[in-house]
Each structure stands twice: as structure tokens, then as C-alpha cells.
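Internal tracking record. Fields below are filled automatically when a chain is submitted to the structure queue. Please do not edit lines marked as system-generated. If the sequence contains nonstandard residues, flag them in the REMARKS field before resubmitting.
Queue: standard
Priority: normal
Entity type: single polypeptide chain
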Amino acid sequence: MALARAWSVALFGVDGVPVEIEADVGAGTVRTQLLGLPDAALHESKDRVKAAVRNSNHNWPTQRVTLGLSPATLPKGGSGYDLALACVVLAASQAVPAERLSGTVLIGELALDGRVRTVRGVLPALMAARRAGLTRAVVPTASLPEAALVEGLSLHGAATLTDVIGWLNGDDTSLTRPPPPSLAPPPAPSGPDLADVVGQPEARWALEVAAAGGHHILLTGPPGTGKTMLAERLVSLLPPLSTDEAIGVTAIHSIAGLLTPETPLVGTPPFVSLHPSTSTAALVGGGTGLAKPGAVSHAHKGVLFIDEACEFGARSLEALRTCLEEGEVRIARRDGIARYPARFQLVLATNPCPCAPPKDLDCICLPAAKRRYQAKLSGPLLDRVDLRVTMRPLTVMMAAEVAEPEPTEVVRARVFKARTRARERWAAHGWRTNAEVPGPVLRREFRLPREATTLLDRALALGALTGRGADRCLRVAWTLADLGETNQPTADHVSAALEFRERRKS
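SYSTEM-GENERATED OUTPUT FOLLOWS
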């Protein structure tokens, strides 16, 4: 009887749990038994691993093989355990030495001919392995650029199972070493220029405020007024991600299978645009077994654009409320709770009515139809949107009178300066933008003078504003003060912030 151990990682959301894989080869009925709550894909790995071992010029043991995945009560799934299963069985059958398996995490799917294929989630898996004290990792060669982002691990890349067997036998040249990691975020993202948007000065200003403070924004207007153009240009106004932010975003994209070897690090804020046919599961995450990340997590630290918002199902839109407030999605399943970060900027764009004519006078919708259409954006959802702008069609006369629009580069410079002021102010608390600051902190530690909040207090007294809405007004006021390069919001800043929230869809 022989026993061997190796390591892999199980992912639950972005959290990883090291899994100890044990193999026992001994007397008994010739069969291979896999224990530890495997799902269907993992249960099928027995046949994949057997074929890969045979096609790598090694024999599968002709004895009883028992494979245990511990913790035994933790559900496990996917094909990323294949490489570890093959190596631990070969070590247990004494076909290869077991010394190098100690402290080594092995991740990869095996093809029937022994090739090592990449799997999703290599980056968060290796981060979990490092936290658990493992010191070495063997991953597919194609995953090396992504894996190299994790410091503190001795990293090796394998193209085939034969290469891994050679390394276990002492051949250090059989595996590939990773390239030097590139953790420096790229320069500011390039994209469509804000100068392409003609007119709409109010909406352009709101977009600048949204970029400077990390605020959510609603654009309402007939087709062709530039709602989509403005939304697509918001990302170009945002600063590049910091190193920690970039690795966090990259981990989510790794789990979602969105990374490529050419771009292993997501250094710029992502932009995710959705169609009204998007399901609730695709929006916030879901799927069978443990949930996969949805669009709100793909847009983490970036922009989520929901065009034609009133065409979306009410259930899908209401699912946004929790993650807008908490910056995280928690999806409960029978086998556990998957947690995914989802701190994004939301841009909603909608027509004022179902028929959406270019001119308001041409609308043929009944008042009840308009109310039903606009009711898709419920009060609790709109209460979480800081800036609301009504856009008007651009007439020939307006186009002739409009000044030369500012390009993205000019607006971005003001946004960066305002963000720098906010980051320095909140640095001691760990917040980077005004939108992240909790309301109690604004009301107590950074309380504004009574004369500055007179209008806000009156709106609260009249019931025209909720407590959450008042907090969001204060955040916008701080952003307006940062853009105006003043140390504290004035009554004018608070009034302007309140006006942004009091806009109504026409």
C-alpha cells in the first residue's frame, strides 16, 4: 500500500480554499474511487486522467485507487484538479518521486493525449495558495503570464503531463519559467473623444461630475441625442487602475474566462454594455452549482452601461440595488455563498416613453403608458442614482451656436485633479472617491455649516428627499467642491447637487 499527497484549489466566488488531494493505491477490487463531493465535471476526470497517464507512456495502477479531496465536506467542481490527480496517483504507485509534491499546488485540465489545458481562475487560485503557505505552483504554460502576477510563489509552466513527470523526476529544464510580471498599469485609456458629442452642455457637465466623484448617472432623452456616445466616453475620463485594483479586476476576469495571454493584466477600467435581453443571472451572476460572476462584477472598478433601461425587466433592475449600495454581490446556493466584488459606476440611459419620437410634441403615448414605462425605474433604484439629466434634441440653430466642444484630454485633466483632492482627503480612511464615503461620516466628521445645507434640510422636512438621497447629495456637493478647487462645499454646491437629483423625466 502507498499513499501520496498533492494540492489544488477550490474557488467560491473570488475566495479560494486549498484542497489536499490524497491517493491511496492498494489491494482490493480494481477500480478508481473519487471522494470529497465532486461535481459531474470532476467525477469525469477519472477517465480523462487515466487516458492522459496512458498516453504519457505510464501505466495506470492495476489495483484499487482511492482519491480523497479534503476538506471532504466542501463541494468541488471543474476540471482544474486533473493535473494534481494524475501526479498524486503516479506518486502513490511509486512511478515518480513524491518529494516535489510537498508544498506544491497543481492546476490544469488534462487532454486525453496528456496536454495540459488552461482553466479559469488561475490567478485567484494561486493567491489563495500563497495565503495558505504553499510555496510552489505548476500551471498550464498558457496561464503563465496571468500566474506571474502572484508574487511569493516559485512558478512553473507545463505544456504536457510528460513535462510534469520529468520535473517530478528531477529534470528542472522540463518545465517553463514565467516571464517577468508587468504590474505597471498602462497609461490613461484611449477611446472615443468627448469632442465628438455636439451640444448637450448639461449632460457633458454631469458626465464630468460623475467621473470626478464616482457617481451613478441617468440620461433621459429621445433617440439620437447622444446618450450612448456620452456613456462610452466616461471610461476615457477615469484614471488607470492602481496595482491592487488591477489585480482584483483581473482575478474576476480570470474566473469569467475573459483574459488572454496577450493581456494578462486588466489595467484600465472595464466598460460593460448590456442589451435589454440580459437575464438577471447574466446581470448579477448565477448558474448551476456555485454561481459564476455576472456583468456587474465584470464591470468592477469600471462602468456598467444599461441602455434602454426601461426595456429591461423590473426584476433585473431591482437586482442592482444591493450591489449599488454595498459594492458586492452575494449569491446564495445550496452548496454555499459566492461573493464577487461589484463596485462600478452605473450609467442608465432611457427614452422618455415607449414610442420615443424625436420631438416631444409627436408623442402618441397615453399618460398611463408613459407612467408604466417610466415605472420600470423604481423609486428605490433611482434613489441610488446621484445625477439625473434630461437631454433635448439638438436643433440646427443650437448646433450653429454651440461652442467648440472640449476634448477628452482637457476634461480628464480636471477630473484627475478633483480625484486627487478627494483621495488625499479620504486617504486616512481608505476611500478613493467621494461616492465611497459613508453618509454618517459626512454628517458627523465632515459636517457642513447650517447655512450651506439649508435647502437640503428643507427638502428632507418636506419629504422631497430621503435620508439616502441626502447623503448622496452631500457626496455630489463634495465632488463639485473638488472640481471648483474649494476646501468645503458651499450652499451653491449643495443646491447644484440637489438640482441634479430633483430632475424629472419629461
